[in-house]
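TODO from last week: model Biotin carboxylase of acetyl-CoA carboxylase.
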Amino acid sequence: MSLSSPRTIRSVLVANRGEIALRVMKACRELGIATVAVYGEGEADAPHVRYADRAYRVRPEAGSPYLAIDALVATARAASVDAVHPGYGFLAENPAFATAVTASSITWIGPAAETIATMGDKIAARRAAARAGVGSVPGTTTPVESAAEATRWADAHGYPVAVKAAAGGGGRGFRVARRAEEMGSAFSECRGEAERYFGNPDVYLERYLERPRHVEVQVFGDQHGHVVALGERDCSIQRRHQKLIEESPSPAVTEEVRADLKSGSVALATSVSYVGAGTIEYLLAADGSFSFLEMNTRIQVEHTVTEMVTGIDLVKEQLRVASGEPLSFSREALIPRGWAIECRINAEDAGRNFAPAPGTISRYREPTGFGVRVDGAMGEGDSISPMYDSLIAKLVVWGRDRPEAIARMRRALGDFEIAGVETTIPFHERVLGHEAFVAGEATTTFLDEFPDVLTRPYPPRVSASPNPVPGAARPETTEPLGLLVEVNGQRFDTRITGLPGQLTVPQRKRAERPRRRSAAATQSPASTELVSAIQGTVIRVEVAPGDAVATGDVVCVVEAMKMENEIGAHRDGRITELHVAVGDSLAVGAVIASIVDEPARP
Protein backbone atom coordinates (compact mmCIF):
# COMPACT_ATOMS: atom_id res chain seq x y z
CA MET A 1 0.00 0.00 0.00
CA SER A 2 1.34 3.44 -0.91
CA LEU A 3 2.02 5.99 1.80
CA SER A 4 0.51 8.66 -0.43
CA SER A 5 -2.93 7.09 -0.28
CA PRO A 6 -3.83 6.13 3.31
CA ARG A 7 -7.26 4.54 3.63
CA THR A 8 -9.90 4.61 6.30
CA ILE A 9 -11.08 1.10 7.10
CA ARG A 10 -14.79 0.98 7.89
CA SER A 11 -15.52 -2.65 7.02
CA VAL A 12 -13.43 -5.84 6.90
CA LEU A 13 -14.04 -9.21 5.30
CA VAL A 14 -12.41 -11.94 7.41
CA ALA A 15 -11.29 -14.68 5.02
CA ASN A 16 -11.13 -17.34 7.71
CA ARG A 17 -13.15 -19.23 10.27
CA GLY A 18 -13.07 -20.48 13.87
CA GLU A 19 -11.12 -18.83 16.66
CA ILE A 20 -9.04 -16.44 14.55
CA ALA A 21 -12.09 -15.11 12.70
CA LEU A 22 -13.76 -14.34 16.02
CA ARG A 23 -10.54 -12.77 17.33
CA VAL A 24 -10.32 -10.40 14.35
CA MET A 25 -14.00 -9.53 14.50
CA LYS A 26 -13.81 -8.62 18.18
CA ALA A 27 -10.89 -6.28 17.51
CA CYS A 28 -12.82 -4.71 14.65
CA ARG A 29 -15.89 -4.19 16.82
CA GLU A 30 -13.84 -2.35 19.44
CA LEU A 31 -12.58 -0.02 16.70
CA GLY A 32 -16.07 0.55 15.28
CA ILE A 33 -15.30 -1.44 12.11
CA ALA A 34 -18.06 -3.56 10.54
CA THR A 35 -17.27 -7.22 9.85
CA VAL A 36 -18.19 -9.63 7.08
CA ALA A 37 -17.88 -13.40 7.52
CA VAL A 38 -17.59 -16.05 4.83
CA TYR A 39 -18.61 -19.66 5.22
CA GLY A 40 -19.07 -22.92 3.38
CA GLU A 41 -21.52 -25.78 3.30
CA GLY A 42 -22.94 -26.70 6.70
CA GLU A 43 -21.50 -23.62 8.44
CA ALA A 44 -24.47 -21.23 8.31
CA ASP A 45 -24.76 -21.35 12.10
CA ALA A 46 -21.03 -21.40 12.87
CA PRO A 47 -19.85 -19.11 15.71
CA HIS A 48 -17.94 -16.74 13.43
CA VAL A 49 -21.00 -16.42 11.18
CA ARG A 50 -23.26 -15.63 14.14
CA TYR A 51 -20.86 -12.98 15.45
CA ALA A 52 -20.26 -11.08 12.20
CA ASP A 53 -22.37 -8.11 11.13
CA ARG A 54 -22.94 -9.77 7.75
CA ALA A 55 -22.13 -13.18 6.29
CA TYR A 56 -21.84 -14.57 2.78
CA ARG A 57 -21.90 -18.18 1.62
CA VAL A 58 -18.94 -18.95 -0.65
CA ARG A 59 -19.54 -21.60 -3.29
CA PRO A 60 -16.27 -22.51 -5.00
CA GLU A 61 -16.24 -24.78 -8.01
CA ALA A 62 -14.19 -27.24 -5.99
CA GLY A 63 -12.39 -27.50 -2.66
CA SER A 64 -12.56 -25.39 0.47
CA PRO A 65 -14.31 -22.01 0.37
CA TYR A 66 -11.41 -20.60 2.39
CA LEU A 67 -8.97 -21.45 -0.41
CA ALA A 68 -11.02 -20.10 -3.31
CA ILE A 69 -9.22 -16.86 -4.22
CA ASP A 70 -11.56 -15.76 -7.02
CA ALA A 71 -14.71 -16.50 -5.00
CA LEU A 72 -13.39 -14.74 -1.90
CA VAL A 73 -12.35 -11.62 -3.82
CA ALA A 74 -15.71 -11.57 -5.62
CA THR A 75 -17.44 -11.79 -2.23
CA ALA A 76 -15.32 -8.92 -0.88
CA ARG A 77 -16.31 -6.78 -3.87
CA ALA A 78 -19.97 -7.73 -3.53
CA ALA A 79 -19.88 -6.81 0.17
CA SER A 80 -18.16 -3.48 -0.65
CA VAL A 81 -15.62 -3.93 2.14
CA ASP A 82 -12.61 -1.67 2.59
CA ALA A 83 -10.19 -4.41 3.65
CA VAL A 84 -9.58 -8.17 3.88
CA HIS A 85 -7.98 -9.85 6.90
CA PRO A 86 -6.72 -13.37 6.08
CA GLY A 87 -6.20 -14.59 9.68
CA TYR A 88 -3.74 -17.49 9.77
CA GLY A 89 -3.63 -20.67 7.72
CA PHE A 90 -5.58 -21.10 4.49
CA LEU A 91 -4.58 -18.17 2.23
CA ALA A 92 -2.91 -15.99 4.86
CA GLU A 93 0.53 -16.45 3.30
CA ASN A 94 -0.54 -16.73 -0.32
CA PRO A 95 0.89 -13.87 -2.41
CA ALA A 96 -1.62 -14.48 -5.20
CA PHE A 97 -4.47 -13.79 -2.77
CA ALA A 98 -2.81 -10.58 -1.52
CA THR A 99 -2.29 -9.46 -5.11
CA ALA A 100 -5.90 -10.22 -6.09
CA VAL A 101 -7.21 -8.26 -3.10
CA THR A 102 -5.12 -5.16 -3.74
CA ALA A 103 -5.83 -5.34 -7.49
CA SER A 104 -9.50 -4.90 -6.56
CA SER A 105 -8.64 -1.66 -4.70
CA ILE A 106 -9.24 -3.37 -1.37
CA THR A 107 -6.74 -3.02 1.49
CA TRP A 108 -4.79 -6.16 2.33
CA ILE A 109 -4.19 -6.47 6.08
CA GLY A 110 -0.70 -7.89 5.98
CA PRO A 111 2.68 -7.43 4.32
CA ALA A 112 3.06 -6.79 0.60
CA ALA A 113 2.62 -9.72 -1.78
CA GLU A 114 6.30 -9.46 -2.75
CA THR A 115 7.35 -9.84 0.89
CA ILE A 116 5.02 -12.81 1.37
CA ALA A 117 6.47 -14.45 -1.74
CA THR A 118 10.07 -13.94 -0.59
CA MET A 119 9.64 -15.05 3.00
CA GLY A 120 6.98 -17.66 2.25
CA ASP A 121 9.44 -19.52 0.03
CA LYS A 122 11.59 -21.13 2.70
CA ILE A 123 14.58 -21.37 0.38
CA ALA A 124 14.41 -17.69 -0.58
CA ALA A 125 13.89 -16.83 3.11
CA ARG A 126 17.12 -18.63 4.03
CA ARG A 127 18.97 -16.53 1.47
CA ALA A 128 17.36 -13.34 2.82
CA ALA A 129 18.37 -14.28 6.36
CA ALA A 130 21.97 -14.83 5.25
CA ARG A 131 22.06 -11.40 3.59
CA ALA A 132 20.76 -9.86 6.84
CA GLY A 133 23.51 -11.58 8.81
CA VAL A 134 21.21 -14.14 10.48
CA GLY A 135 22.61 -17.67 10.35
CA SER A 136 20.52 -20.66 9.31
CA VAL A 137 20.63 -24.38 9.97
CA PRO A 138 22.95 -25.98 7.35
CA GLY A 139 20.87 -26.98 4.32
CA THR A 140 20.24 -26.64 0.59
CA THR A 141 19.65 -23.28 -1.06
CA THR A 142 17.76 -24.64 -4.08
CA PRO A 143 14.90 -27.16 -4.37
CA VAL A 144 15.91 -30.83 -4.31
CA GLU A 145 14.58 -32.64 -7.37
CA SER A 146 14.86 -36.32 -6.43
CA ALA A 147 15.30 -38.73 -3.55
CA ALA A 148 18.66 -39.71 -5.01
CA GLU A 149 19.85 -36.09 -4.90
CA ALA A 150 18.58 -35.81 -1.33
CA THR A 151 20.44 -38.96 -0.35
CA ARG A 152 23.68 -37.69 -1.87
CA TRP A 153 23.40 -34.42 0.11
CA ALA A 154 22.63 -36.27 3.34
CA ASP A 155 25.51 -38.68 2.82
CA ALA A 156 27.83 -35.69 2.46
CA HIS A 157 26.47 -33.65 5.39
CA GLY A 158 25.29 -36.35 7.78
CA TYR A 159 22.03 -37.64 9.24
CA PRO A 160 19.44 -36.95 10.57
CA VAL A 161 18.09 -34.70 7.80
CA ALA A 162 14.82 -32.77 7.67
CA VAL A 163 12.96 -32.74 4.35
CA LYS A 164 10.82 -29.57 4.28
CA ALA A 165 8.30 -28.02 1.91
CA ALA A 166 9.57 -24.79 0.36
CA ALA A 167 6.09 -23.28 0.74
CA GLY A 168 5.34 -25.04 4.02
CA GLY A 169 4.35 -24.00 7.48
CA GLY A 170 2.30 -25.11 10.47
CA GLY A 171 4.25 -28.37 10.76
CA ARG A 172 3.06 -29.65 7.37
CA GLY A 173 5.37 -30.70 4.58
CA PHE A 174 7.99 -31.90 7.09
CA ARG A 175 9.66 -35.31 7.34
CA VAL A 176 12.83 -36.51 9.05
CA ALA A 177 15.17 -39.15 7.60
CA ARG A 178 17.47 -40.55 10.27
CA ARG A 179 19.30 -42.91 7.91
CA ALA A 180 19.66 -43.47 4.17
CA GLU A 181 16.93 -46.14 4.00
CA GLU A 182 14.35 -43.59 5.19
CA MET A 183 15.15 -40.85 2.68
CA GLY A 184 13.05 -42.25 -0.17
CA SER A 185 9.79 -42.31 1.79
CA ALA A 186 10.58 -39.03 3.59
CA PHE A 187 11.19 -37.28 0.26
CA SER A 188 8.11 -38.65 -1.54
CA GLU A 189 5.76 -38.10 1.41
CA CYS A 190 6.97 -34.55 1.96
CA ARG A 191 6.53 -33.67 -1.73
CA GLY A 192 3.05 -35.19 -1.75
CA GLU A 193 1.95 -33.31 1.37
CA ALA A 194 3.47 -30.08 0.05
CA GLU A 195 1.50 -30.43 -3.18
CA ARG A 196 -1.78 -31.17 -1.35
CA TYR A 197 -1.53 -28.37 1.24
CA PHE A 198 0.39 -25.64 -0.57
CA GLY A 199 0.05 -26.38 -4.29
CA ASN A 200 3.85 -26.44 -4.57
CA PRO A 201 5.79 -29.73 -4.42
CA ASP A 202 9.24 -28.12 -4.03
CA VAL A 203 11.22 -29.34 -1.02
CA TYR A 204 14.62 -28.57 0.46
CA LEU A 205 16.89 -30.16 3.07
CA GLU A 206 18.22 -29.10 6.47
CA ARG A 207 20.33 -30.83 9.06
CA TYR A 208 17.91 -31.95 11.76
CA LEU A 209 19.09 -30.75 15.15
CA GLU A 210 18.51 -33.02 18.12
CA ARG A 211 16.93 -31.61 21.32
CA PRO A 212 16.77 -27.91 20.38
CA ARG A 213 14.36 -25.32 21.76
CA HIS A 214 11.89 -23.77 19.31
CA VAL A 215 11.96 -20.02 19.96
CA GLU A 216 10.34 -17.30 17.85
CA VAL A 217 10.37 -13.50 17.85
CA GLN A 218 7.30 -11.34 17.23
CA VAL A 219 8.07 -8.42 14.93
CA PHE A 220 5.90 -5.56 13.74
CA GLY A 221 6.53 -3.03 11.00
CA ASP A 222 4.63 -0.03 9.67
CA GLN A 223 4.56 1.87 6.38
CA HIS A 224 6.85 4.56 7.79
CA GLY A 225 9.91 2.33 8.04
CA HIS A 226 9.62 1.46 11.74
CA VAL A 227 10.24 -2.17 12.76
CA VAL A 228 10.09 -3.33 16.38
CA ALA A 229 10.69 -6.73 17.99
CA LEU A 230 8.23 -7.38 20.83
CA GLY A 231 10.10 -10.27 22.48
CA GLU A 232 10.27 -14.02 22.12
CA ARG A 233 7.97 -16.97 22.63
CA ASP A 234 8.99 -20.55 23.45
CA CYS A 235 7.02 -23.14 21.46
CA SER A 236 9.09 -26.24 22.15
CA ILE A 237 6.31 -28.63 23.20
CA GLN A 238 4.97 -29.99 19.93
CA ARG A 239 3.40 -33.02 18.35
CA ARG A 240 4.12 -33.81 14.70
CA HIS A 241 6.06 -30.55 14.53
CA GLN A 242 2.91 -28.61 15.45
CA LYS A 243 2.80 -26.52 18.61
CA LEU A 244 0.74 -27.43 21.67
CA ILE A 245 1.96 -25.11 24.44
CA GLU A 246 3.56 -21.67 24.06
CA GLU A 247 4.94 -19.24 26.60
CA SER A 248 6.52 -15.82 26.76
CA PRO A 249 9.24 -15.14 27.64
CA SER A 250 11.29 -18.29 27.07
CA PRO A 251 12.78 -19.85 30.21
CA ALA A 252 15.89 -20.72 28.18
CA VAL A 253 16.70 -17.23 26.83
CA THR A 254 19.14 -15.01 28.69
CA GLU A 255 19.11 -11.23 28.38
CA GLU A 256 22.18 -11.38 26.14
CA VAL A 257 20.62 -13.96 23.82
CA ARG A 258 17.34 -12.03 23.86
CA ALA A 259 19.10 -8.88 22.67
CA ASP A 260 20.76 -10.82 19.84
CA LEU A 261 17.48 -12.48 18.81
CA LYS A 262 15.67 -9.15 18.69
CA SER A 263 18.39 -7.28 16.81
CA GLY A 264 18.74 -10.07 14.24
CA SER A 265 14.96 -10.24 13.76
CA VAL A 266 14.66 -6.48 13.26
CA ALA A 267 17.54 -6.56 10.74
CA LEU A 268 15.86 -9.35 8.74
CA ALA A 269 12.38 -7.76 8.80
CA THR A 270 13.83 -4.38 7.82
CA SER A 271 15.76 -5.90 4.93
CA VAL A 272 12.52 -7.10 3.31
CA SER A 273 10.58 -3.86 4.08
CA TYR A 274 8.25 -5.74 6.38
CA VAL A 275 4.83 -4.20 7.18
CA GLY A 276 2.41 -5.70 9.68
CA ALA A 277 2.65 -8.56 12.17
CA GLY A 278 5.23 -11.27 11.51
CA THR A 279 7.09 -13.99 13.35
CA ILE A 280 10.68 -15.13 12.84
CA GLU A 281 11.34 -18.65 14.07
CA TYR A 282 14.64 -20.06 15.36
CA LEU A 283 16.14 -23.22 16.78
CA LEU A 284 17.96 -22.52 20.04
CA ALA A 285 20.82 -24.78 21.11
CA ALA A 286 21.79 -25.50 24.72
CA ASP A 287 24.75 -23.13 24.46
CA GLY A 288 22.49 -20.20 23.53
CA SER A 289 23.36 -20.17 19.83
CA PHE A 290 20.40 -19.91 17.49
CA SER A 291 19.68 -20.60 13.81
CA PHE A 292 17.02 -19.12 11.53
CA LEU A 293 14.22 -21.48 10.54
CA GLU A 294 11.58 -19.45 8.73
CA MET A 295 9.42 -16.34 8.83
CA ASN A 296 5.63 -16.46 9.07
CA THR A 297 4.17 -13.44 7.30
CA ARG A 298 0.93 -13.32 9.28
CA ILE A 299 -0.48 -13.21 12.79
CA GLN A 300 0.43 -16.38 14.70
CA VAL A 301 -1.88 -18.65 16.69
CA GLU A 302 0.21 -17.91 19.77
CA HIS A 303 0.21 -14.11 19.42
CA THR A 304 -1.88 -14.09 22.58
CA VAL A 305 1.02 -14.69 24.95
CA THR A 306 2.89 -11.71 23.51
CA GLU A 307 -0.24 -9.61 23.98
CA MET A 308 -0.51 -10.67 27.61
CA VAL A 309 3.06 -9.66 28.52
CA THR A 310 3.18 -6.46 26.44
CA GLY A 311 -0.39 -5.22 26.83
CA ILE A 312 -0.57 -4.53 23.09
CA ASP A 313 -3.53 -5.74 21.01
CA LEU A 314 -1.68 -7.06 17.97
CA VAL A 315 -4.78 -7.48 15.81
CA LYS A 316 -5.83 -3.88 16.40
CA GLU A 317 -2.28 -2.90 15.52
CA GLN A 318 -2.62 -4.80 12.24
CA LEU A 319 -5.73 -2.79 11.40
CA ARG A 320 -4.08 0.53 12.28
CA VAL A 321 -0.91 -0.21 10.32
CA ALA A 322 -2.91 -1.35 7.28
CA SER A 323 -4.73 1.97 7.26
CA GLY A 324 -1.40 3.83 7.15
CA GLU A 325 -0.94 4.78 10.80
CA PRO A 326 2.49 4.50 12.45
CA LEU A 327 3.10 1.94 15.16
CA SER A 328 1.39 2.92 18.41
CA PHE A 329 4.46 1.87 20.43
CA SER A 330 8.20 2.28 20.21
CA ARG A 331 11.08 -0.02 21.10
CA GLU A 332 12.03 2.23 24.01
CA ALA A 333 8.53 2.24 25.50
CA LEU A 334 8.07 -1.53 25.15
CA ILE A 335 8.55 -3.07 28.61
CA PRO A 336 7.20 -6.66 28.85
CA ARG A 337 5.99 -7.70 32.29
CA GLY A 338 5.19 -11.03 33.87
CA TRP A 339 4.79 -14.41 32.21
CA ALA A 340 2.13 -15.85 29.90
CA ILE A 341 1.35 -19.44 28.86
CA GLU A 342 -1.04 -20.71 26.20
CA CYS A 343 -2.47 -24.23 25.91
CA ARG A 344 -4.19 -25.19 22.67
CA ILE A 345 -7.37 -27.07 23.59
CA ASN A 346 -7.87 -29.39 20.64
CA ALA A 347 -10.48 -32.05 19.92
CA GLU A 348 -7.86 -34.79 19.93
CA ASP A 349 -7.09 -37.93 21.90
CA ALA A 350 -3.48 -37.67 23.13
CA GLY A 351 -3.56 -41.35 24.08
CA ARG A 352 -4.17 -42.28 20.45
CA ASN A 353 -1.26 -40.27 19.07
CA PHE A 354 -3.38 -37.10 19.12
CA ALA A 355 -5.97 -38.60 16.79
CA PRO A 356 -8.58 -35.98 15.77
CA ALA A 357 -11.98 -36.36 17.43
CA PRO A 358 -14.70 -34.55 15.49
CA GLY A 359 -18.16 -34.42 16.99
CA THR A 360 -20.64 -32.19 18.80
CA ILE A 361 -19.85 -30.41 22.06
CA SER A 362 -22.56 -31.32 24.57
CA ARG A 363 -21.22 -29.19 27.43
CA TYR A 364 -18.88 -26.21 27.43
CA ARG A 365 -17.89 -24.04 30.38
CA GLU A 366 -14.85 -21.77 30.23
CA PRO A 367 -12.63 -21.03 33.24
CA THR A 368 -12.67 -17.51 34.62
CA GLY A 369 -10.70 -15.46 37.13
CA PHE A 370 -7.83 -13.01 37.32
CA GLY A 371 -5.24 -13.45 34.58
CA VAL A 372 -7.29 -16.00 32.58
CA ARG A 373 -8.20 -15.51 28.92
CA VAL A 374 -10.02 -17.86 26.54
CA ASP A 375 -10.01 -17.29 22.80
CA GLY A 376 -12.72 -19.73 21.83
CA ALA A 377 -13.78 -21.16 18.50
CA MET A 378 -16.71 -23.28 19.67
CA GLY A 379 -19.40 -23.47 22.32
CA GLU A 380 -22.06 -25.81 23.64
CA GLY A 381 -24.01 -27.42 20.80
CA ASP A 382 -21.42 -26.55 18.14
CA SER A 383 -20.05 -29.29 15.91
CA ILE A 384 -16.37 -29.80 15.20
CA SER A 385 -16.08 -30.68 11.53
CA PRO A 386 -13.54 -33.24 10.26
CA MET A 387 -12.95 -30.90 7.31
CA TYR A 388 -11.02 -28.36 9.40
CA ASP A 389 -8.49 -28.31 12.21
CA SER A 390 -9.26 -29.52 15.70
CA LEU A 391 -8.83 -26.31 17.73
CA ILE A 392 -11.67 -25.71 20.19
CA ALA A 393 -10.13 -22.87 22.16
CA LYS A 394 -6.88 -21.28 23.25
CA LEU A 395 -6.51 -21.06 27.02
CA VAL A 396 -4.11 -18.28 28.02
CA VAL A 397 -3.01 -17.21 31.49
CA TRP A 398 -0.78 -14.45 32.86
CA GLY A 399 1.20 -14.44 36.09
CA ARG A 400 3.75 -12.13 37.68
CA ASP A 401 6.35 -14.87 37.21
CA ARG A 402 6.55 -18.34 35.68
CA PRO A 403 5.58 -20.33 38.81
CA GLU A 404 2.45 -18.21 39.24
CA ALA A 405 1.56 -18.61 35.56
CA ILE A 406 1.98 -22.40 35.79
CA ALA A 407 -0.18 -22.59 38.92
CA ARG A 408 -2.85 -20.44 37.29
CA MET A 409 -2.86 -22.54 34.14
CA ARG A 410 -3.22 -25.77 36.13
CA ARG A 411 -6.18 -24.28 37.98
CA ALA A 412 -7.78 -23.01 34.76
CA LEU A 413 -7.36 -26.38 33.04
CA GLY A 414 -9.13 -28.04 35.95
CA ASP A 415 -11.98 -25.53 35.67
CA PHE A 416 -12.42 -25.97 31.91
CA GLU A 417 -15.41 -28.24 31.19
CA ILE A 418 -15.89 -29.74 27.73
CA ALA A 419 -18.01 -32.82 27.07
CA GLY A 420 -19.11 -34.65 23.95
CA VAL A 421 -15.67 -34.83 22.33
CA GLU A 422 -12.22 -35.93 23.45
CA THR A 423 -9.88 -33.03 24.25
CA THR A 424 -6.24 -32.36 25.07
CA ILE A 425 -7.08 -30.92 28.51
CA PRO A 426 -5.89 -34.02 30.44
CA PHE A 427 -2.66 -34.01 28.44
CA HIS A 428 -1.99 -30.35 29.24
CA GLU A 429 -2.61 -31.03 32.93
CA ARG A 430 0.08 -33.70 32.88
CA VAL A 431 2.58 -31.50 31.06
CA LEU A 432 2.04 -28.52 33.37
CA GLY A 433 2.74 -30.79 36.34
CA HIS A 434 5.78 -32.51 34.88
CA GLU A 435 9.09 -31.74 36.58
CA ALA A 436 10.93 -31.12 33.30
CA PHE A 437 8.39 -28.54 32.18
CA VAL A 438 8.26 -26.90 35.60
CA ALA A 439 12.06 -26.66 35.55
CA GLY A 440 11.91 -24.95 32.14
CA GLU A 441 13.87 -27.74 30.45
CA ALA A 442 11.44 -28.80 27.72
CA THR A 443 12.83 -29.18 24.18
CA THR A 444 11.18 -30.16 20.89
CA THR A 445 11.73 -33.82 21.83
CA PHE A 446 9.74 -33.49 25.07
CA LEU A 447 7.04 -36.01 24.12
CA ASP A 448 9.61 -38.57 22.98
CA GLU A 449 11.62 -38.16 26.18
CA PHE A 450 8.63 -38.16 28.53
CA PRO A 451 5.88 -40.36 27.05
CA ASP A 452 4.34 -40.59 30.53
CA VAL A 453 2.61 -37.25 29.87
CA LEU A 454 0.48 -38.94 27.23
CA THR A 455 -2.90 -39.86 28.68
CA ARG A 456 -4.62 -43.21 28.36
CA PRO A 457 -6.86 -43.38 25.29
CA TYR A 458 -10.40 -42.18 25.81
CA PRO A 459 -13.01 -44.99 25.81
CA PRO A 460 -14.43 -45.35 22.30
CA ARG A 461 -17.56 -43.41 21.50
CA VAL A 462 -20.22 -45.87 20.38
CA SER A 463 -22.95 -44.83 17.97
CA ALA A 464 -25.08 -46.53 15.33
CA SER A 465 -24.00 -43.83 12.90
CA PRO A 466 -20.60 -42.70 14.15
CA ASN A 467 -19.77 -39.18 12.95
CA PRO A 468 -21.35 -39.49 9.48
CA VAL A 469 -20.04 -37.27 6.73
CA PRO A 470 -22.76 -34.69 5.86
CA GLY A 471 -24.78 -35.88 2.91
CA ALA A 472 -23.33 -39.39 2.94
CA ALA A 473 -25.58 -42.42 2.65
CA ARG A 474 -26.26 -44.37 5.82
CA PRO A 475 -23.64 -47.15 6.05
CA GLU A 476 -24.51 -50.81 6.14
CA THR A 477 -23.62 -52.84 9.22
CA THR A 478 -21.23 -55.70 9.81
CA GLU A 479 -20.86 -58.50 12.29
CA PRO A 480 -20.36 -57.46 15.94
CA LEU A 481 -16.92 -56.03 16.70
CA GLY A 482 -14.94 -57.04 19.77
CA LEU A 483 -13.00 -54.36 21.65
CA LEU A 484 -11.07 -54.33 24.88
CA VAL A 485 -12.17 -51.12 26.67
CA GLU A 486 -10.32 -49.63 29.62
CA VAL A 487 -12.16 -47.19 31.90
CA ASN A 488 -10.51 -45.80 35.04
CA GLY A 489 -8.03 -48.65 35.07
CA GLN A 490 -10.63 -51.43 34.69
CA ARG A 491 -10.83 -53.47 31.49
CA PHE A 492 -13.97 -54.81 29.87
CA ASP A 493 -14.49 -57.06 26.86
CA THR A 494 -17.08 -55.28 24.72
CA ARG A 495 -19.13 -56.25 21.65
CA ILE A 496 -20.31 -53.40 19.42
CA THR A 497 -22.82 -53.75 16.60
CA GLY A 498 -23.99 -51.35 13.94
CA LEU A 499 -20.52 -50.26 12.80
CA PRO A 500 -20.14 -49.31 9.13
CA GLY A 501 -18.91 -51.86 6.65
CA GLN A 502 -16.64 -51.25 3.69
CA LEU A 503 -16.37 -52.96 0.31
CA THR A 504 -13.26 -55.07 -0.11
CA VAL A 505 -10.95 -53.40 -2.60
CA PRO A 506 -8.71 -55.90 -4.42
CA GLN A 507 -5.04 -54.95 -4.35
CA ARG A 508 -2.12 -56.29 -6.33
CA LYS A 509 0.15 -58.34 -4.10
CA ARG A 510 3.65 -56.95 -3.73
CA ALA A 511 6.93 -58.17 -2.34
CA GLU A 512 7.61 -58.04 1.37
CA ARG A 513 9.58 -54.97 2.48
CA PRO A 514 10.68 -53.30 5.74
CA ARG A 515 7.79 -51.45 7.33
CA ARG A 516 7.48 -48.07 8.97
CA ARG A 517 6.45 -48.19 12.60
CA SER A 518 3.56 -46.39 14.24
CA ALA A 519 1.74 -46.45 17.54
CA ALA A 520 -0.34 -49.62 17.58
CA ALA A 521 -4.10 -49.35 17.34
CA THR A 522 -5.64 -49.16 20.81
CA GLN A 523 -7.90 -52.18 20.51
CA SER A 524 -7.76 -55.77 21.63
CA PRO A 525 -5.38 -58.01 19.65
CA ALA A 526 -7.94 -60.75 20.11
CA SER A 527 -9.96 -59.32 17.22
CA THR A 528 -8.79 -60.02 13.67
CA GLU A 529 -10.26 -56.75 12.35
CA LEU A 530 -8.33 -53.48 12.52
CA VAL A 531 -10.81 -50.61 12.87
CA SER A 532 -10.42 -46.86 12.56
CA ALA A 533 -10.52 -44.74 15.70
CA ILE A 534 -10.84 -41.57 13.60
CA GLN A 535 -12.91 -40.17 10.76
CA GLY A 536 -11.07 -38.97 7.68
CA THR A 537 -9.78 -39.73 4.19
CA VAL A 538 -7.28 -42.43 3.29
CA ILE A 539 -4.27 -40.80 1.59
CA ARG A 540 -1.80 -43.71 1.61
CA VAL A 541 -2.01 -47.49 1.98
CA GLU A 542 1.20 -49.17 3.13
CA VAL A 543 0.23 -52.85 2.86
CA ALA A 544 -1.42 -55.32 0.49
CA PRO A 545 -3.28 -58.61 1.02
CA GLY A 546 -0.80 -61.32 1.87
CA ASP A 547 1.67 -59.01 3.60
CA ALA A 548 3.00 -59.96 7.03
CA VAL A 549 2.81 -57.22 9.67
CA ALA A 550 3.93 -56.78 13.26
CA THR A 551 2.12 -54.81 15.94
CA GLY A 552 2.61 -51.13 15.20
CA ASP A 553 3.47 -51.48 11.50
CA VAL A 554 1.78 -48.73 9.48
CA VAL A 555 -1.22 -50.09 7.60
CA CYS A 556 -2.53 -46.81 6.17
CA VAL A 557 -2.40 -43.04 6.63
CA VAL A 558 -5.62 -41.12 7.20
CA GLU A 559 -5.94 -37.36 6.80
CA ALA A 560 -8.32 -35.90 9.37
CA MET A 561 -8.80 -32.32 10.51
CA LYS A 562 -5.75 -31.15 8.53
CA MET A 563 -3.44 -33.77 10.07
CA GLU A 564 -1.95 -36.99 8.75
CA ASN A 565 -2.56 -39.94 11.11
CA GLU A 566 -0.69 -43.21 10.79
CA ILE A 567 -2.84 -46.21 11.70
CA GLY A 568 -0.77 -49.13 12.92
CA ALA A 569 -1.54 -52.83 13.09
CA HIS A 570 -3.11 -53.90 16.39
CA ARG A 571 -1.61 -57.41 16.28
CA ASP A 572 1.04 -59.55 14.61
CA GLY A 573 -0.14 -61.56 11.62
CA ARG A 574 -0.84 -61.48 7.90
CA ILE A 575 -3.21 -59.19 5.97
CA THR A 576 -5.96 -61.39 4.52
CA GLU A 577 -8.32 -58.61 3.45
CA LEU A 578 -7.81 -54.91 2.86
CA HIS A 579 -11.02 -52.89 3.06
CA VAL A 580 -9.72 -49.43 2.11
CA ALA A 581 -8.09 -47.69 -0.84
CA VAL A 582 -6.60 -44.25 -1.37
CA GLY A 583 -9.39 -41.67 -1.49
CA ASP A 584 -11.86 -43.64 0.65
CA SER A 585 -13.72 -41.80 3.41
CA LEU A 586 -13.51 -43.56 6.77
CA ALA A 587 -15.97 -43.31 9.64
CA VAL A 588 -15.09 -44.08 13.24
CA GLY A 589 -15.24 -47.84 13.63
CA ALA A 590 -14.82 -48.63 9.94
CA VAL A 591 -12.96 -51.86 9.28
CA ILE A 592 -9.58 -51.15 7.65
CA ALA A 593 -8.06 -54.61 7.33
CA SER A 594 -8.33 -58.19 8.51
CA ILE A 595 -5.18 -59.51 10.19
CA VAL A 596 -5.00 -63.20 11.08
CA ASP A 597 -2.32 -65.27 12.79
CA GLU A 598 0.54 -66.41 10.61
CA PRO A 599 0.06 -70.08 9.67
CA ALA A 600 2.36 -72.45 11.54
CA ARG A 601 5.47 -73.30 9.56
CA PRO A 602 5.84 -77.05 8.71
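Done. The domain at 338-441 is CATH 3.30.470.20 (D-amino Acid Aminotransferase; Chain A, domain 1).
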